[in-house]
Amino acid sequence: MEESVTSENLPVIGQRFRGFLPVVVDVETAGFNSQTDALLEIACIPIVYNENGEFVPGEALHAHINPFEGANLDRRSLEFIGIDPSSPLRIAMAEDEKTALKRIFKALTEVRREQKCTHAVLVGHNAHFDLGFLQAAVARTGTKNQNPFHSFSVFDTVTLSAMMFGQTVLARSCMQAGIEFDGKEAHSALYDTQKTAELFCYILNKLAPHTLDNLVADQ
After folding, report:
1. CATH top-level class for 24-207?
2. Catalytic: which of 62, 119, 150, 187?
3. Does residue 187 carry a catalytic annotation?
4. Cα 75 from Cα 80, distance rounded (Å)
5. Integer angstrom CA distances of residue 49 from 46, 54, 83, 140, 149
6. How would you write the pLDDT of the chain (219 residues) with one tens digit per residue?
């Protein structure tokens, strides 16, 4: 009799990427220097399997962040991303860096353990930019011990998109994949993370499909 797939025996990501849990990350910042410029927004989405053995985005984690003390706020960068750090509405819902990172890291660590992974690996569109700002924030806040991310390994959707579509721009790559992309929503960390996660899953499911029977049998 063919074994049925339940929540108890769903395949886990730890079997697929040498124990790495892919987590799509996007940050919005007040400049390009991770050491001096403010981290203003971060979103993270872990990648998991669904009941059909396909890669899918997991639950999103998101935070608006207050600039750290002494942070540089480049006016041109703020205008480009459309964030006003002094907005009363934004101030009311924003967190300090340490609070936001500890909350997000705790949730990601729970997913990492559920997926039997040893580390999270950052997935991003120009991933080392996001990793640099994340690492700078970790150093400022003393959250190294809570940080689930590998210190230098990344999966970059720019490289994957160039290989798959001949495109490197996120919006154009999504359009090639048939993924709806609203330019008016771009430069929101949560929106860009959602679209990058959809793109990453699309590419993985096209290039590296796994049958559900094989995934369950490997457990």
Report:
1. alpha beta
2. 187
3. yes
4. 9
5. 10, 5, 34, 34, 20
6. 444 445 566 789 998 999 999 999 999 999 999 999 999 999 999 999 998 889 999 999 999 999 999 999 999 999 999 999 999 999 999 999 999 999 999 999 999 999 999 999 999 999 999 999 999 999 999 999 999 999 999 999 999 999 999 999 999 999 999 999 998 888 899 999 999 999 999 999 998 766 445 554 455
